[in-house]
Amino acid sequence: MDPSKTFEPKNEILDAPLHEIGFEISPQKITGHFSVTEKWCNPFKVLHGGVSALIAESLASMGAHVASGFQRVAGVHLSIHHLKSANLGEIVHAEAKPLNVGKSIHVWEVNLWKSDNSSKLGNRILISSSRLTVKTIMVVPEKIKDAAANLIKKYAKL
User: Fold this and answer.
1) Contact residues for 68 (Cβ-Cβ < 8 A; gap 6+)
2) H-helix or E-strand containing 11?
3) What's the pLDDT at 155?
4) Cα dist. 131→51, 74, 95, 108 in Å?
5) What's the pLDDT tens digit per position in 91-127?
6) Order of strands across the sheet with 105-115?
7) 132 by DSSP, 3-state: which?
8) Is residue 57 annotated as a catalytic residue, yes or no?
9) What is the pLDDT of residue 21?
10) Which of 57, 95, 109, 142 does the annotation list as catalytic?
11) What is the model's pTM?
12) pLDDT at residue number 6
């Protein structure tokens, strides 16, 4: 099955929390933005590095899930470089793109950036750069065959 031909936008069903904060999901990339709130900050009022890692893993895993034809996937390695900070109240943009879509392994790159408001050009300032290796074509155990139906019921409150 070629997911790029059969994909219908189902953002709300696929990942309700990502949909809630404005992310668009497709087999080729996932893009979106969010505002840095107090819940997402460390004690110094900047975006917590763990949140950047959470966003990276979520975006890449969801992208691999869609690109693999909605198969069960699992992240096996995450590498993240924290380059700059994002302060409380700033808008952070995110984009995940596949670097390699293999039969059983995908590699996704996820970049988070903020806008440079001091520049007339509106340049991007890279906050973090990540790579996630994802295992695909995983067998779904018999006892959790109905997990897809229950997936919608689980909402993360970020």
Assistant:
1) 3, 101, 106, 136, 137
2) helix 11-14
3) 39
4) 15, 14, 12, 6
5) 999 999 999 999 999 999 999 999 877 666 568 999 9
6) 24-25, 30-35, 91-101, 105-115, 124-138, 72-82
7) strand
8) yes
9) 65
10) 57
11) 0.79
12) 45
Contacts of residue 41, defined as CB under 8 A and 6 or more positions apart, other chains included, come to: 47, 48, 88
- How far apart are the C-alpha atoms of 67 and 85, rounded to whole Å? 31
Residue with tokens 């050009």: 121
Question: Which amino acid is present at 43?
Answer: P
pLDDT tens-digit map of 30-47: 999 999 999 999 999 999
What span, in angstroms and rounded, lies between the C-alpha atoms of 122 and 104?
39
Q: What is the pLDDT of residue 27?
A: 80
Amino acid identity at 157? K
